[in-house]
Amino acid sequence: MIKSISAKRYIAACLASALAILPVLTSCIADDTTLADRPLSEIIINPASIEKVYNISKNDILRISPEISQTNTPKEVSYTWEINQEVFSNDKDLEYPAKYLGTYQCRLIVGNTDGKSFYPFTVNVNSPYEEGIAVLSQDADGRSMISFMLTPTEEGTERHFTAGDCFAANNEDTRFASHAIDMVHSSGSLIIACQGADDWQSLPQQGRGSDVPTIYYLNDKTLVAENILTVTEYSDFKPTRLIIPSVGAEGVAYPILCENGSVYEFSTTEGAISQPTKLQSKYAQTCTEHDDGGLGWEFELIFWDKTVGCLCEIYSGYGPYYCGKTYHLLRDDAANENYFGGNDIVKIVPIDLTDSQKRTESSDILVLTKNAFMTRKVILDSGFWVHDYSSGVNVLADNGGFSIACVGTDIITENTPCVANKTFYSLLFGKGNKLMRWNYTTQQTLDKSTVLQTFGSAKAVITDLVISRDHKTTYVAFYEPEQTGLNGSVYVIDTDTGDILERHDNVCYRPTRMIYKKK
User: Fold this and answer.
1) How would you classify residue 173: left for phi > 0, otherwise alpha for psi between -120 and 50, otherwise beta?
2) What band does 169 get if pLDDT is binned at 50, 70 and 90?
3) Which of 96, 192, 202, 203 has the most CB within a 10 Å radius?
4) Half-sphere exposure of residue 446, counting CA atoms within 13 Å on the CB side?
5) C-alpha–C-alpha distance, residues 514 and 519, integer Å
């Protein structure tokens, strides 16, 4: 607490000095009413009513109601709130909307006719989107929405989703294009793809309010749109999947998979979409990416080429490479290879590794075909592929390798949400409102998968899954088709037992993409 200098003592000293120079003036002041004896009203700010340091999130409103008292006879007081040495308000109570990140030096000044008292304090405006779960969703009409749940840094703090649409809260002058479909976290941005209105070609909308196919760059700490790329020059550009590693490299064009199986190239540094020069076939709505964990210039993208009927690879921007019994085949050579006994690919699922596993173990992927299952071990240095061409042969391999098991066309599709991990050697996938589990190192067939947990009503639909970095918990996003409004929910379960640990009901619309956004 900072008080003003005692006005009483100051006046007394000045009066004594004046009287020494002009002694004739002493006759103007009665002996019992000297200024030195007049009682002053000093202001005291209760330190318990104002904290020294406030930590709030962007878009929050800081409210402070100070408590003051005065000595002797109270007088009328005035209030001044300063933010970074500038007057913000003269109201008694402070209401400060936190619009921008940063640290602010603040001060309350309370004054009356006898003096002033000061109370300095600090306000830290932090990002509410630093690390946590981000959910992209759309309602029945395609209206897009972003929801976010911050991972608490203080022990004992309960997690919760921020209220409302995070995009609207941080981009008041921008309309969010409809049918938001995919989202990635790359190089300090959340990059989001929206398909736009179904009849966007007939809409006369332009600029930041357009409802056309759009790519957004959002600042990953503020969710403010720093770049908006509308794509109207290609009539078949209807994005379904952004295939961009977490650390993008300059000068590299990354694929965007579209609804019709075509792929467009996307330069994240130039913010431009172009027709493909590498991936010119038609591709299944399933693919996976593997990066080097932070370097950005070394990554691997794997697709299923439906035109040729085989896996193909883009490696660090080069390719595509087609892989068979020998490695790095040409496209024409690959057409004559025997891929998975001639079976079509249904789903490609990366097997997730914990941070500690990444230091000692290799990355594998699961490749699910219509009647077979196999894994492919990824070794980035040599690019070696492990394939099994003997259909129907069961091979057990707990440490990766490959295995064959019956899948069945009605169990998993290209759009089935899946997540696999190398801690419990399990594949989790959604089937309606049921979360299924299959141990991919056993000889048990996929159609014998067990129900790990059931969510919502009988008509609820699981749409996406994300596993935690330590594999202990899994986030399950689902929605209730018969409900209106915010009909999407996110639950947190124990990955091993399936027990529900957290319930976050009605936090979004129908989830289309959920990611764990890291710092």
Assistant:
1) alpha
2) very high
3) 192
4) 28
5) 16
